[in-house]
Specification:
With 202 residues, this protein is mainly alpha-helical. The chain has helices spanning 3-13, 18-25, 29-36, 44-54, 58-61, 64-92, 96-99, 124-146, 153-176, 180-201; strands spanning 103-107, 110-114.
Length: 202
């Protein structure tokens, strides 16, 4: 008997609806429906809760092959969450570009390195774009970190694409406006993101 059939049978034996079981396991009714229709498996934590709820061992719930599938799925999910966390940290660190002396300012015929708050050589419209690019990137990073508390692979994937796109646009704009230090650091921070993206796509 497959896991989905066992779960359905155990639930009916205990006179529980999908909603009641979902509440007991702290998951959505959609998750229960998905598991019972054979469209997926619960994660390790949910399996432990199912085992406890019905007083059966995990070995009784899953065959060896199913256990391997669950472990593989859990591993992929953990890697995806870790890469999203790294993306988030790298994006959040963009705030440093406001406070670090990365901008060349001419003072009395000499070029000094100043932070963005002190920088006045560029027109106000250009500086507003600098702030917009940096603050938006850090907000993307904060969202990526907050999403670690939710298990939504689709949102992880969308945010990673947004992060890469926004990061690339920032590099192009800072390079075009002749800000070499910010451009170099943005490029260096983009490399680990690309490496993670390539690794996760394999």
């Amino acid at each position: 008997m497959e896991f989905n059939e066992k779960l359905k049978e155990l639930r009916k034996q205990h006179n529980m609806t999908q909603e009641q079981l979902a509440e007991k396991l702290y998951v959505s009714r959609t998750a229960i429906s998905k598991w019972e229709s054979g469209k997926g498996y619960p994660n390790i934590e949910s399996l432990k809760n199912i085992s406890k709820a019905f007083s059966v061992s995990i070995d009784e719930l899953l065959s060896n092959n199913e256990l391997l599938q669950v472990a593989e799925s859990e591993n992929k999910s953990n890697i995806s969450k870790l890469s999203s966390l790294i993306f988030g940290i790298l994006d959040l660190m963009a705030l440093a570009y406001i406070f670090l002396p990365f901008y060349g300012q001419e003072i009395d015929g000499y070029i000094y390195s100043v932070n963005l708050l002190q920088y006045t050589d560029a027109p106000i419209s250009i500086r507003i774009i600098y702030y917009t690019l940096i603050i938006s990137m850090s907000l993307i990073g904060a969202t990526e970190i907050i999403l670690q508390f939710f298990d939504d692979k689709k949102k992880f994937s969308i945010l990673k694409s947004v992060s890469i796109t926004w990061h690339s646009l920032s590099i192009i704009f800072f390079a075009a406006s002749r800000q070499p230090y910010v451009t170099i650091f943005l490029f260096l921070f983009l490399m680990p993101k690309m490496a993670l993206l390539i690794k996760n796509s394999k």
